Amino acid sequence: MAEHTITLTDNATGRSVEYPLREGTHGPSVIDIKTLYQDLGHFTYDPGFTSTASCRSDITFIDGDEGTLLYRGYPIEQLAEHSSFLEVSYLLLNGELPSRTELDDFSHSITVHTMVNESLKNFFNGFHYNAHPMAMLTAVVGSLSAFYHDGIDINDPESRRMCAHRIIAKMPTIAAAAFKHMVGEPFVYPKNRLSYSANLLNMLFSRPTEEYEINPVAERALDQLLILHADHEQNASTSTVRLAGSTGTNPFAAVAAGCASLWGPAHGGANEAVLRMLEEIGHPSRVEQYIAKAKDKDDPFRLMGFGHRVYKNYDPRATIIRKTCHEILEELGMGDDPKLELAMKLEDIALRDEYFVERKLYPNVDFYSGIIYKALGIPNQFFTVMFALGRTPGWIAQWGEMVEDREQRIGRPRQVYTGAARRDYVPVEKR
Ligand code: SDX
Questions:
Q1: How many CB atoms lie within 10 A of CB 154?
Q2: pLDDT at 2
Q3: CB 258 less than 6 A from any atom of ligand 1
Q4: Residue 58 catalytic?
Q5: CA separation for the pair 369, 272 (Å, rounded)
Q6: How far is the CA of 259 from the centre of ligand 1 (A)?
Q7: Are 392 and 165 in contact (CB under 8 A)?
Q8: Which of 215, 153, 145 is nearest to 174 (CA)?
Q9: Which among 165, 163, 135, 123 has a CA at the least distance from the CA of 250?
Q10: Residue 384: what are its φ and ψ, rounded to 5°?
Q11: Looking at residue 240, what is its pLDDT?
């Protein structure tokens, strides 16, 4: 079949050039414009990359109109119900669901890498007690590059595999240490006999003074939340990891850059912002007033946890989290949590409001997740850390795919220059 092409014509010169259209497995095809500048002497202009594909990827597919999310082809709904976070991590890294032996080997490899170098604890002593945990996570994850620098050859598949296992294994240990620093309690070491999510709960909440009982409902809810956050194609933080990684930098440094990007309230920081918003609204009777603020162009207030660059339908993760929210709050005897009631009232009103309907603004993954984290005893400021823990396998899988992609080069976008025209220097006495 003849190749499908798109022709671009420069009306000023009459020059026309054909560009190949590349089809994916699902979703929009892409116009391969790699040679546009040398052909026509123009750049494309796409602030926010609303119409730009930065790479080819086999890892995650999102259909924003349908509200579909697939990890390596598997629907998120099925993975959230039947899989585990470690199995999903294996899937994202390797492209296939593991056999029982492969899963056991992978779980063992993660388990035996959960400890961090003891001297890493000194970093936390440098933080004030009220340091934001994302500041601590970003700094300490970046410092891992100091411990694992010489031994890393990013062009060696085995070295990349070890980096991936180490970062997935150590993130919860570092995150929990940041939490313990926040609350002024002693750090808790990982326990190899616990599952990934049980280990995280234990490192967060156990104390030397008493036995800590893992609540299986909390363990399952946490594991599912981590699954739902594990990857999301070329979102801002993943694109940050890819761009940083494209220079050949240390993968731990690239993931630290991803943490920094995720922290923003327009991205992973939204879950913390949702709880702050719900606490500020305070009562269902004030919802209308805040909806009006969200619609007011002169008011910077936005409905946090609503809207998405890609989803113009329900975020499938929000649908799953909403269901889990009800279940976990009932299980924990918090079914009448006023924040859940307020969130549902806010969602109900917004989804019937023309402004939100017209702009296809629906609840996203961040709208309900904070309510569950809060119910699990996790403070607002720590919600984005939980998001980072979930997104780590996605970041490192995308980093590995970028390194292996022969088409990938150092990411170096261009611009349209709108500054001062060329002019000569004027000595200060003549200004
Ligand atoms: C995540 O990319 C990913 O995949 C991210 C993520 C992942 O898993 O990695 O899914 C995780 O980051 C989820 C999003 C979390 N952020 C929030 O909940 C913050 C609130 N949402 C908005 O800031 C916004 O919706 C974004 C940032 C999520 C999307 O921004 P876009 O795509 O640039 O959309 P936009 O700002 O151009 O908005 C389009 C219109 C605008 O109005 P008009 O100019 O057309 O009149 O919708 C309005 C916006 O003002 N709008 C909102 C709104 N979100 C968009 N108005 C009120 N409240 C909102 N939340």
A1: 17
A2: 64
A3: no
A4: no
A5: 9
A6: 19
A7: no
A8: 145
A9: 163
A10: -70, -30
A11: 98
State the Cα–Cα distance between residues 405 and 412, nearest whole angstrom.
Answer: 16
CA atoms within 13 A on the CB side of 122: 5
The answer to whether the CB of 294 is under 6 A from ligand 1 is yes
Quick check: 361 and 303 in contact, CB under 8 A?
A: yes
Of 132, 165, 181, 308, which residue is the catalytic one?
Answer: 308
pLDDT, tens digit (0-9, with 9 covering 90-100), for 344-359: 899 999 889 999 999 9
121 lines ligand 1 (CB under 6 A): no
* pLDDT per residue as tens digits for the range 35-74: 999 999 999 999 999 999 999 999 999 999 999 999 999 9
What's the gap in Å between 284 CA and the centre of ligand 1? 23
Contacts of 249 (CB under 8 A, 6+ apart): none
Confidence of residue 297 (pLDDT cuts 50, 70, 90): very high
pLDDT-derived band at 370, boundaries 50, 70, 90:
very high
- Nearest residue to 235 via CA among 59, 35, 13: 59
Question: CB of 93 closer than 6 A to ligand 1?
Answer: no
Q: Which pTM does this prediction carry?
A: 0.95
Which residues lie closer than 8 Å to 419 by C-beta, 6 or more apart?
none
Active site residue 308: yes
Q: Tokens for 369? A: 């997740």
Q: Express as a percent the part of the chain with pLDDT over 70.
A: 100
- Phi (first) and psi of residue 356, to 5 degrees: -75, -40
Residue from 229, 239, 267 to probe ligand 1 pocket by mutation (most atoms less than 8 Å from CB): 267
Residue-level pLDDT at 263? 97
For residue range 318-334, what is the model confidence (pLDDT) as tens digits? 999 999 988 888 888 88
Q: Is 374 touching ligand 1 by the criterion CB < 6 Å?
A: no
Burial 11-47 (b: 16+ CB within 10 A, else e): eeeeeebebeeeeeeeeeebbebeebeebbeeeeeee
Q: How confident is the model at residue 5 (pLDDT cuts 50, 70, 90)?
A: very high
Q: Where are the alpha helices (DSSP H) in 184-212?
A: 196-205
